[in-house]
Amino acid sequence: MTAAISNLSLHASDWWTIGTAAVCGVACGVPGVYLVLRRMSMLGDAISHAILPGLAAAFLFFGTRDVLAMLAGAMATGMLTAWLSAGVARLGKVPEDAAMGVVFTSLFALGVLLITLGSRNVDLDPGCVLYGLIDAVALDTRDVLGVAVPRSFLILSVFAVLNVSLVGVFYKELKIVSFDSALASALGFRSGVVHYTLLAMIAATCVASFEAVGSILVVAMLIVPGATAYLLTDRLSRMLVIAAVVACVAAFAGHLLALATGAAVAGAVSVALGGLFAGAALFSPRYGVVARALRRAALALRIRREDALANLYRAHEGRAAETRRAPGLLDHVAAWALRRQGLVVAKDGVSALTDAGLARARTLIRSHRLWETYLAERVGLPADHLHDPAHRVEHFITDELRGELAGDVGTDVDPQGREIPPDRRAEGEP
To answer: What domains, with CATH codes, occur in the chain?
Structure first.
């Protein structure tokens, strides 16, 4: 497939297709970020499906597919979907997600029925609404300054600019309502107005997008760019930008995939979006599966290194080292890391602490024994129940907490009669 993609040559119609998918992604992805933040992704899916009866009713009533007529019908059913979902959840005492599922599936089925009945006598294709005609957008053009520009590209560009502008103008209101609607109401913001304005934006964008990209890609563009951006950053401003970039990259990559495989463009772009989300889920620096696995591995290695230092310190005191398990691969890696860091040296085949290693181990043992003493004095744990909790906590005790523990316990000996190592840094040592 890589070779097939590399041999592809893009024509003007291909670039218009990519551009149409990209502006659709920006128009849907930017408001979609707020759906993700407010945990209302299912509502975006519900609106994108439930406005189908509004489209069908508008067509049957007005006898035209004019954008304004479709927009009126879709926005009406979009608002109806949100209102009915809230009403069913409140009156029916069912969870909100179940209420949305009932409402949007019922309205979607009604829309399919209306389209089926209406298409017997008029030219109304259900496939146009469900799958879109994005690969044929270049066939319907308008003259703009002497350039033939696809009609769908023009319409979606207007909605993209409008949505981005609205988000920019009402950025503060949308931000506070998304993160804490109760606080927004307390501060005098009309959360309901902001909520329904957002839903109106989404409903209108869905209408503008349906003819070109179909409902499948609309749902993907509403949710996936925002969800991908959510994994990559915690800042809302960056999240909005990343969502738009993800949508544009998916439009380009998906079209190439469609050309290489012969698949539908809308489906290929949706697959590309899924691939980008999977990449973020795996490799996001903070939330990615790989990053979390690496952090856990680094933490496990640090704990093994510190356990080894503690054992060597106990040997330095003349006490027996703790052997809780047979040494494994991670223990050998930890031993190698300690030697490389200059904390441990091998003398006659036996590991010993260097001065730097002794200072590090002394701090660790001090944390362990201070915590044991605190648990015995303040919590009242018996002596045989002190070691395990102290062993777990010793790796996470900070200098500040260590100082507070030392001032609180007021003794230099732990419950087992062992000396608590003094704080040599307080005496001027490193």
So the answer is: 8-285 (1.10.3470.10), 293-427 (1.10.10.10)
pTM for the structure as a whole = 0.76
HEC string for the chain: CHHHHHCCCCCHHHHHHHHHHHHHHHHHHHHHHHHHHCCCHHHHHHHHHHCHHHHHHHHHHHCCCCHHHHHHHHHHHHHHHHHHHHHHHHHCCCCHHHHHHHHHHHHHHHHHHHHHHHCCCCCCCHHHHHHCCHHHHHHCEEEECCEEEEHHHHHHHHHHHHHHHHHHHCHHHHHHHHHCHHHHHHCCCCHHHHHHHHHHHHHHHHHHHHHHHHHHHHHHHHHHHHHHHHHHCCCHHHHHHHHHHHHHHHHHHHHHHHHHHCCCHHHHHHHHHHHHHHHHHHHCCCCCHHHHHHHHHHHHHHHHHHHHHHHHHHHHCCCCCCCCCCCCHHHHHHHHHHHHCCCEEEECCEEEECHHHHHHHHHHHHHHHHHHHHHHHHHCCCHHHCHHHHHHHHHHCCHHHHHHHHHHHCCCECCCCCECCCCHHHHCCC
* pLDDT for position 224: 93
10-residue stretch averages of pLDDT, the chain, 430 residues long: 57 87 91 86 71 75 69 73 75 73 77 69 53 74 84 88 90 83 75 76 78 77 92 92 95 90 84 94 91 93 92 80 67 89 84 89 92 90 88 91 88 86 62
